[in-house]
Specification:
about 290 residues, binds S-adenosylmethionine
Length: about 290
């Protein structure tokens, strides 16, 4: 067989295996949502408090969710967070998930709660929000442990920028790869990241790359920090460990030699309400004048 023939045969083979990441994530949640709900209830987040309403109340505060906003819940799971928020806040929540199974469960939940006018659920890919909603549509965009699934994070941030109104807030709570100097720990962290990515169809983010893209888009970074919750009430590890028995990823932070591979961080940033490209100093001048 000619060399070029070989190459095209190999290309064809890879093309067939080159599944779209979003579709793969959707399939993953179609298959596992029942299992997640058995351990996590209707809020599918691993960093959480024993009483999940404490964590959701914290999210309301931290993401500055208020009345009369249009809010995108990007990667909404089965709608647990948005349904909770909508009972407290008089705003409209547009929820999207890549899993049709989750979308059906979320839609039913919204009907059961009589929240049809406030919570709208769609089965869609969050990378396409600009096509779905158009520019300058949202006051808030939430990614609650959902951003890290994306394999096109730069495109996703650009789409978030486009659909956010000037002055609006993008809020990301997610897992990011830990950084250490120690070579042994570094290796264990890498292994842990590969395990998480495989087990959860995830793409654990690199904080540097994400922050760099946010700044290049001209987002104003308000904070990057660990969630400011009462850590005596942290429930993540109990739940994760029970769940991990099923996924076999073997992260047990209670073991002495374990190296936890991720930091849970929240990033809050704001789209400027002025043309940052034309008037870069405006923000700082305003700030200085207010001192
Ligand atoms: C760990 S769950 C978090 C769910 C929800 N935020 C919560 O707090 O319960 C991750 C979510 O991200 C969604 N997701 C991942 N990739 C997506 C994509 N490309 N488009 C839309 N949703 C996506 C999944 O469908 C899932 O609902």
């Amino acid at each position: 067989m000619k060399k070029s023939g070989n190459i095209s045969a190999i290309r064809k083979l890879f093309k067939n295996f080159n599944t779209n990441n979003s579709e793969a994530v959707g399939d993953f949640y179609d298959r596992t949502t029942e299992m997640f709900m058995a351990t996590h209830g209707d809020v599918i987040q691993s960093l959480r408090t024993f009483d999940i309403s404490d964590y959701l109340n914290y999210t309301i505060k931290s993401a500055v969710l208020k009345d009369n906003q249009v809010i995108l819940d990007a990667g909404c799971g089965v709608g647990g967070p948005s349904v909770y928020f909508a009972k407290k806040i008089n705003s409209v929540f547009q929820c999207i998930t890549i899993s049709s199974v989750q979308a059906d469960i979320a839609k039913q939940k919204v009907i059961n709660e009589g929240l049809e006018k406030k919570v709208i659920v769609q089965h869609a890919d969050y990378h396409n929000v600009a096509d779905i909603f158009g520019k300058n549509y949202f006051d808030r965009i939430l990614f609650l442990e959902s951003f890290g699934h994306s394999d096109k994070k730069n495109d996703l941030l650009k789409a978030a920028w486009d659909v956010l109104k000037p002055g609006g807030i993008l809020y990301i709570k997610d897992l990011f790869e830990r950084e250490v100097d120690d070579a042994f720990e570094k290796k264990r962290i890498r292994e842990g990241i590969v395990n998480i990515n495989n087990a959860y169809k995830f793409n654990v983010g690199d904080l540097h790359q994400v922050i760099s893209k946010l700044r290049k888009l001209y987002f104003i970074i308000e904070f990057i920090k660990i969630p400011d919750i009462d850590y005596s009430q942290l429930d993540s590890f109990a739940i994760s460990t029970a769940f991990q028995d099923k996924t076999k990823i073997g992260l047990d932070p209670s073991k002495e030699d374990s190296v936890f591979p991720v930091d849970y961080l929240e990033i809050r940033c704001r789209k400027p309400d002025f043309d940052f490209k034309k008037n870069r100093n405006h923000f700082y001048l305003n700030r200085m004048n207010s001192f």
